[in-house]
Amino acid sequence: MTVRGKIFTVMAVLVVLVSVAYIGTTQGFLGSLFARYYSEGGGGEVPVEQLEGLRGFILEQMELKAITVTLYVAGITAVVCYWLSGMLVRPLKRLIAVMDRVARRELDAEVPVLRRDEYGQVGEAFNKMTLNLREAENSRKRLVEDVAHELRTPLSIVLSKLELIQQSPSDVKPESLLPLHDEVLRLIRLVDELQLLSSAEAGELILHKEMTDLAVLLTDLSELVLPEAEAYGVHLVVPASGDTVWIHIDARRIKQVFLNLVANALKHTPHGGAITLTISRTEDSGFVSVAVKDTGPGIPPEAIPHLFDRFYQVDKTERRASGGAGLGLAIARQILIAHGGYIEAANITGGGAEFTVFLPVSAVSLVREHR
User: Fold this and answer.
1) Per CATH, which fold does 118-201 belong to?
2) Theoretical Cys-Cys bridge with 260: which of 98, 172, 302, 328, CB 3.0 to 4.6 Å?
3) Closest-CA residue to 268 (of 369, 355, 176)
4) What is the pLDDT of residues 36-45, one digit of tens each?
5) What pLDDT, in 10s, does the model give residues 222-269?
6) What three-state secondary structure class fits 362?
7) Which CATH code for domain 210-368?
């Protein structure tokens, strides 16, 4: 039975019950009134048959009136029910029609929100859901396209090299296999990064946390990147070893975050520039922060909202030059989210870019030692 049919049925039952109750109550009242009249001797001069006939006539007229009123009320109730059920059912029918379109993968379908009551709230919530579905579908399509693009280039190189080797009449020299080895490593790195990113986005990234001195971690990091920084002619500044920040983190994952940030800064910092890492903590912020600043050209303002998207790179030619796939910042963001933190990017007044990593202060113990 439809909603409208259920409303009509319920209202009809209510009208019948009220009418029956009215007739029964009236009859009982009249019967008790006549009985009281007899018991008090009021009917001594009037024959009993005449009184009974009078009572029967009155009850008969009341029943006719009750039926007439019932039919009148039923008619009004039917009109009210029809209007009320239409008001309740029409928005549902519109919603069902849009839901059917979405089920057919027409994700651009939206419910027209014409009212501000609960139905309007349901429509707004449904439209937000379809918006999220569209974004997820677009993200999936972009991911497939980007992965296909990233895999196609190294696979084409490997295929062409193998064809050249097969067609070569001479023996294969070991150095001729080095490009193949590099492209295979690139493929392996891409697959590993995608797997890590997918695990992190699904909330399945396994963290091995332990108490770690954040200042020492950054010092160890600087020793890893110092040769490359010197080759670029870039000065690297890290926090002083006297400032100790103990924090409960997965040291390997967090070092991966800062390695990526410093590597990006090195790519964009000119010869003679500097990269500075600083640790700070605001007592009421709830987070300890690590800022990575460079003296490069900065980030185009239109690129900042997309820096942490998959496969996004500000300079499209950089991918071919560096061999990167544009997953580093997306991975860094997901690692920090898994730790309960986040990351922000901004330009520095006067030139340069700044990436700031925030980690929750609930897992931090800050101690300053002056040596």
Assistant:
1) Helix Hairpins (1.10.287)
2) 328
3) 355
4) 666 655 555 5
5) 888 998 999 889 999 887 666 677 888 999 999 999 999 998 899 889
6) helix
7) 3.30.565.10
